[in-house]
Design goal:
Layout: H1 3-19, E1 24-25, H2 26-33, H3 37-54, E2 63-64, H4 80-89, H5 106-114
Parallel strand pairs: 1-2
Helix pairs in contact: 1-3, 1-5, 2-3, 3-5
């Protein structure tokens, strides 16, 4: 499975976490998609790029370091609580990207990464 396919897989996990108003540790998110915690960040970047390009709240803010309770260094966070609240309030379950049945597909993430 390539990085963009993993991003598609993670999108559903994160959309569900947002619906339930939860944050996930890198370790737990990794267990849910079959990746080690250290590999999750690489699969979050396409989601981060896609959200930014589409004007969506930063869904990746929900994945946090277990020790700090905050996202990794790859996500610039000025007001963490405000960002999390925006993500919780967005209707991720209903969001569908063009050509995707549920959320963006791997090709959407590939394009977002290339345009970053």
């Amino acid at each position: 499975m390539n990085n963009h396919q993993r991003a598609h897989q993670l999108w559903s996990v994160l959309a569900f976490a947002a619906y339930n108003r939860q944050t996930l540790t890198y370790s737990f998110a990794g267990k849910l998609v079959g990746l080690p915690a250290a590999a999750i960040g690489k699969s979050l970047y396409p989601i981060q790029y896609f959200c930014k390009q589409q004007g969506l709240p930063p869904l990746t803010v929900l994945v946090v370091n277990q020790a700090t309770g905050r996202p990794g260094e790859g996500l610039d966070v000025d007001d963490f609580a405000k960002m999390v609240q925006e993500v919780f309030e967005y209707d991720w379950i209903s969001y569908k990207a063009p050509e995707a049945e549920v959320g963006p597909d791997a090709e959407d993430f590939k394009k977002a990464s290339e345009n970053h």
